[in-house]
Design goal:
This protein folds into 2 domains: 4-20 and 100-229, HAD superfamily/HAD-like (Rossmann fold, 3-Layer(aba) Sandwich); 24-96, Orthogonal Bundle (DNA polymerase, domain 1), CATH 1.10.150.750. Helix content is 44%, strand content 12%. It contains 10 helices and 6 strands. A 6-stranded parallel sheet has the order 3-2-1-4-5-6, with helices on both faces. Helix 9 links the parallel strand 4 and strand 5 (191-195). Helix 2 packs across helix 3 and helix 3 (63-78) crosses helix 4 (84-92). The mean pLDDT is 96.
Length: 232
């Protein structure tokens, strides 16, 4: 059981943890490709995204380019032509992806007790739109654009530790993705909490590749984590 009183700061993943990126990805893809995706399930779309995203992230390029690449590759996998305008529109849709309903109230509750930071695989300008949707101002924002790398690269976490400015043992990492977040965070010796947003959904891992990691605690949503972390 975690003693939340020993932590000064919380670092969060954004997309998949705070922002419902799976709904955002599938909604944007269907809006742009319409009937061409009629015979493809959301799980198929998400699995295709998970399979190609990392290909575009090494070497580093901006997340807009990563998403545009992903959308073209998804089209190739499904035999659907994707033009440059559609790829760019998909990349720009990030700012429209919705927060999970519990994200804003949970973050506001946690803000009263902890320093809040976000470690996100995103560009500065795209994340700014998501932060506005969350209606919460983070104390520290660490983007892939700043780190010049993407999680699961440990450099993103190391940059966050430098920015937050407290000992790593007093920073708790909170995230949905085992692959992007828990594996590298545990390798750095961090305590982690898994927000298992896909609990009960069945199917595969959604937009995230599979990975093995052992978080220190598991919650089905951010609201239940916030309640536990601020109790007492």
């Amino acid at each position: 059981m975690i003693d939340y009183g020993r932590f000064e700061a919380l670092t969060f993943d954004c997309y998949g943890t705070l922002i419902d990126w799976e709904t955002g990805i599938t909604a944007a893809a269907r809006a742009l490709l319409g009937d061409a995706l009629a015979d493809r399930s959301d799980e198929e779309l998400l699995a295709a995204f998970a399979a190609v995203e990392h290909e575009a992230e090494v070497p580093y390029q901006r997340y807009r380019e990563v998403l545009a690449f992903c959308f073209r590759r998804i089209g190739e996998r499904f035999g659907i032509p994707v033009d440059d305008a559609q790829a760019a529109a998909f990349a720009g849709s990030v700012g429209e992806w919705p927060p999970f309903p519990d994200s804003t109230p949970a973050l506001r509750r946690l803000q009263g007790r902890f320093t809040l930071a976000v470690i996100t695989n995103c560009d500065d300008d795209l994340f700014a739109r998501s932060e506005a949707r969350l209606q919460v101002k983070f104390d520290h924002v660490i983007t892939a654009e700043q780190a010049r790398s993407y999680k699961p690269d440990q450099r993103n976490f190391q940059l966050a530790h430098e920015r937050v400015g407290v000992p790593p043992g007093r920073i708790l990492h909170v995230a949905q993705s085992l692959y992007h977040d828990h594996v590298p965070a545990k390798r750095l010796g961090m305590t982690t909490v898994w927000i298992n947003r896909r609990a009960g959904k069945g199917g595969g891992g959604g937009a995230t590749p599979p990975a093995d990691a052992t978080p220190d605690a598991v919650f089905p949503d951010l609201a239940s984590f916030a309640a536990a972390a601020t109790a007492g």
